[in-house]
């Protein structure tokens, strides 16, 4: 599998969010077959772990924010001494599910915002659970819960598991699976998270708490990661994290780790590519394009590979899904679940920097995107402090 020079491969050998989640779970006794997180964390003697996830906060975005003076709290935390990657694709469905389960995308099956599901014979939006072409709802989604959540495994070992997340997400199918075993602490506004998080850290029973901030990602999509709106939201998040740290008991037995599921890259409006038209879908493809604007999954017969390659070569790197799967792009091949291989189609198109594949089923063009393998999308911070 040959990737372009600018591509950052997920470092499942010890330097990814997968390894981070596996190591935090292993600290509380959850077994893992994945390599330990490569960088040192002050875990010795920690009875409580608080993992803060700021959606879309790439390592480069944080570095720029610190330079601007927008993130004094985050600047005061200890950074990982080396790079840390997201998973592939670098998108919330894949990476946040990895943080909830300590499993690679090839193990948990959430391989993008939309994927082909053999079980439904359709390309399905995994958040809203409907056929992206007909909008028919997925009637039975129980098969999507493919692996146990990290929280259920922690709870089975006597560790109190908690998630602090928006109230709007509490009853979704994904949340009911990915957060199974955790007590759900719902918030209406992020400013409520310090008090909610502090209440999860009780003396006696060890605990594990994940705190999730999605708003920065939403604003980066709508306004761009370099926009004043995104900068303002990151300043807000930094203040809230400062309040959260101040609210925690100061017993020295709590480790706080902050990371992101992926980063974001600015998307020029003129970089959207209309190569996959309805006509192409009807002739060269076996159904709607799945995946992401920055990592598209194409189901096509070998008769049309050359035609698809000619359409996309100026705009994207094209690789076979078999090569990506066996080459470990979605997770270590030894642990990949073959049931999920069809979900990523036959060909994978990863647009060049500044490009995005627009599809007939795509939402309105966004000014910030992720899903690909650029450094902006793939590299994430890991910060820590013991309190």
Automatic annotation (TrEMBL):
<dbReference type="Pfam" id="PF01663">
    <property type="entry name" value="Phosphodiest"/>
</dbReference>
<dbReference type="InterPro" id="IPR002591">
    <property type="entry name" value="Phosphodiest/P_Trfase"/>
</dbReference>
<protein>
    <submittedName>
        <fullName>Alkaline phosphatase family protein</fullName>
    </submittedName>
</protein>
<dbReference type="InterPro" id="IPR017850">
    <property type="entry name" value="Alkaline_phosphatase_core_sf"/>
</dbReference>
């Amino acid at each position: 599998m040959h990737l372009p020079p600018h591509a950052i491969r997920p470092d499942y050998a010890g330097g990814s969010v997968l390894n981070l989640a596996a190591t935090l779970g292993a600290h509380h006794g959850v077994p893992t077959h994945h390599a330990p997180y490569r960088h040192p964390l002050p875990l010795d003697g920690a009875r409580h772990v608080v993992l803060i996830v700021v959606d879309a906060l790439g390592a480069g975005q944080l570095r720029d924010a610190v330079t601007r003076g927008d993130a004094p709290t985050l600047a005061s935390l200890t950074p990982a001494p080396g790079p840390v990657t997201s998973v592939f694709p670098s998108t919330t469905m894949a990476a946040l599910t990895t943080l909830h389960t300590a499993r690679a995308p090839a193990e948990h099956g959430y391989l993008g915002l939309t994927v082909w599901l053999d079980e439904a014979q359709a390309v399905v939006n995994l958040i809203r659970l409907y056929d992206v072409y007909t909008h028919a709802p997925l009637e039975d989604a129980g098969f999507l819960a493919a692996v146990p959540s990290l929280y259920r495994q922690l709870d089975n070992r006597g560790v109190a598991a908690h998630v602090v997340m928006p109230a709007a997400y509490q009853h979704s199918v994904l949340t009911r699976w990915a957060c199974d075993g955790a007590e759900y602490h719902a918030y209406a506004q992020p400013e409520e998270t310090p008090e909610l998080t502090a209440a999860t850290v009780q003396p006696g029973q060890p605990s594990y708490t994940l705190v999730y901030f999605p708003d920065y990602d939403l604003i980066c999509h709508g306004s761009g990661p370099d926009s004043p709106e995104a900068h303002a939201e990151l300043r807000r998040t930094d203040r809230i994290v400062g309040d959260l740290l101040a609210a925690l008991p100061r017993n020295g037995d709590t480790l706080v780790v902050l990371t992101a599921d992926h980063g974001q890259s600015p998307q020029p409006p003129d970089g959207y590519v209309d190569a996959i038209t309805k006509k192409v879908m009807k002739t060269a493809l076996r159904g709607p394009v799945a995946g992401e604007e920055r990592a598209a999954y194409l189901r096509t017969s070998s008769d049309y590979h050359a035609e698809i390659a000619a359409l996309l070569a100026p705009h994207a790197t094209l690789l076979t899904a078999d090569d990506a799967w066996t080459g470990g792009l979605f997770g270590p091949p030894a642990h990949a679940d073959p049931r999920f291989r069809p979900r990523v189609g036959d060909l994978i198109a990863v647009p060049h920097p500044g490009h995005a594949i627009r599809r007939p089923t795509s939402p309105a063009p966004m000014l910030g995107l992720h899903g690909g393998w650029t450094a902006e999308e793939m590299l994430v911070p890991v910060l820590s402090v013991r309190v």
